[in-house]
Amino acid sequence: MALTLYAHPFSSYCQKVLIPLYENETPFSLRVLADAEAAREFEALWPLKRMPILIDEGRTIMEATVIIEHLALHHAGPVRLLPDDPKSALDVRFMDRFFDNYVMAPMQRIVSDAMRTPDKRDAQTVAEARALLDTAYRWLDQRMANREWASGGEFSLADCAAAPALFYADWTHPIGAAFGNVRAYRRRLLLRPSFARAVDEARPYRPLFPPGAPDRD
Ligand SMILES: N[C@@H](CCC(=O)N[C@@H](CS)C(=O)NCC(=O)O)C(=O)O
Asked: Which residue's CA is the closest to the ligand 1 atom numbered 18?
């Protein structure tokens, strides 16, 4: 059961998939997309060039959430990232969408804008992204008032999405002191060994962070 992941350790969506692989100690080989040969293979496999992708016995699986669902179906380990109960699983999937669409996406918009030359930057897009992050933080703060993890009582797919999303969102648009539950949840995620490992492996790349990485996790 040879699994190959095309990914980069510093990428948020790649970390989202590294977390479940580390949670279950699933064996896989990594093709790091800083390598030119790996990048050529990746582009041939997925012309949309969005990482990560997983190769499982010749089959290419795209999209971080789908990769995690694929791992849960075909390479299940002791840590179940989707509950068996369909209603509970639906809430996990909702929270996964929440983190991708309303935290990861606006964070990426701010980062992408910082990669442009000053004359190509779009202040309105960045302002809208920051406003969306504030709204997302506010909603999440209430949601997390009495919770350890994003959905149900167990660490799940939703937390895999949350960890890198909140990690980088806080770097680009700091989570304010008013959102203590979100801050505490981000700290809990950083203590989770699977995510802590992904964060450690990405440390050497911090100087590459386009808006500039703060001197902290
Ligand atoms: N919808 C995709 C998004 C993946 C994505 O945006 N990956 C980023 C890295 S974090 C990427 O490949 N960026 C390259 C680009 O935008 O050209 C998923 O869920 O896997």
From this structure: 63
Residues present in the chain in total: 217
DSSP track, 66-127: HHHHHHHHHS--SS-SS-SSHHHHHHHHHHHHHHIIIIIHHHHHHHHHHHS-GGG--HHHHH
For residue 60, what is the enclosing H or E element? strand 59-62
Cβ(140) – ligand 1 distance below 6 Å = no
Alpha-carbon separation of residue 28 from 36, 57, 153 (angstroms): 20, 12, 28
Cα(28) to centroid(ligand 1), Å: 20
Could you tell me if the CB of 40 is within 6 A of ligand 1? no
51 alpha carbon – ligand 1 mean position (Å): 5
Cβ count within 10 A of residue 150: 26
Per-residue confidence at 38, pLDDT binned at 50, 70, 90?
A: very high
pTM of the model: 0.97
